[in-house]
Amino acid sequence: MAGGMSRLFRGETTINFYGRRNIGFIASGLLLLVTVGSLFTQGLNLGIDFKGGVAFEVPVAGTMSEAKAKEILAANKIRTDNAKIQTLTSGSTERVRIQLGDLLVETRTTIQEALAKAANATVNDVSVSTVSSTWGRNITTKAINALLVFFLIVSIFIAWQFEWRMALSAIAAMVHDVGISIGVYSFFKLEVTPATVVAFLTILGFSLYDTIVVFDKVHENTERFSGSKVSYADIVNVSMNQVLMRSLNTSISSLLPVLSLLVIGSGVLGAVALREFALALLVGLATGAYSSIYIATPLVGILKERSDQYRSMRGHLSLGVDMTHLMQTGAPVGRRAAARAASDASQGVVPAPVAVETLLSHPPRPRKKSRR
């Protein structure tokens, strides 16, 4: 165990990522199918900022509580299954927030008065805010436009800095990350708010950063092995093993603050407003770290293996000691020697010791007798 951890820290692991790429593709395909199915069957749970409605906030006092709020809504013939009722904590004060769909002015006033009475407060103490669905549509349109512009700029930059195959793979990985994150929100019926949209855009930045780290190492090793007959699959495997610890450190150091926001900020301290943002970040950071290794880089390998430069070496993988030899020397083990060694090892044949004389190009000269 200790030896494995030290090799991981030094970037000397020999995990066959590229050879097992289909496992990642199948897992991602199943998750995306669940996402599509969930979006078609139950859609997204859009917040009041997107679909419009009315929000009440009332101080917790007297007999006011979430249960009492549901009783007041039911008494006014308003369905409570579509209402969002939360208790917000800010320091020593607590407030109950009630989010509903569009209401008539008379119904809105009646509910406001009933909430004030239950809280032993005045009507002015119960805040009422109305949000139009047009505002939510404008947010959605601007977010989509920003996303498309982001994809375009990123594609141009990666294609210029590396090549178009890497740009295409990076975009596919980012679409994968956002798609799975949306699927999680749809499947578990989590509310989508403007904070969620901001978190999704933040996810793209992290996913791109982690992908670029791996791509940079692949690009570096491509130049390093340019003088040797090394397959692109080997370049991908070596590169991912070399940056594996860096990717893990980046992901863990990014996930810990988000977990603190979600557990301590939202759960312990009661800052519910942080929940939507932190939850979207948590899902997105996890999928971003996964996609940089199991989606983006294998896609580059598949596209690059079809090029004229690497087509003849397609399907060749250096595994185990052969990958270690490739990392240390920069040259692959000869295929015949590797095949012969593997065959002998499978049959239990121990290589015979080589005599010194066989390594000499001429017989040894006889030693002269010393004169006495």
What does this structure look like?
- With 372 residues, the chain is an alpha+beta fold.
- The protein folds into 2 domains: 210 residues, Up-down Bundle (Multidrug efflux transporter AcrB transmembrane fold), CATH 1.20.1640.10; 79 residues, ACT domain (Alpha-Beta Plaits, 2-Layer Sandwich), CATH 3.30.70.260.
- The chain is 63% helix and 8% strand.
- The protein contains 13 helices and 6 strands.
- It has a 4-stranded antiparallel sheet with strand order 3-4-2-5.
- A hairpin with a 2-residue loop joins strand 3 and strand 4.
- Helix 4 runs antiparallel to helix 5, helix 7 runs antiparallel to helix 11 and helix 9 packs antiparallel against helix 11.
- The relative contact order is 0.12.
- About 6% of the residues have low confidence.
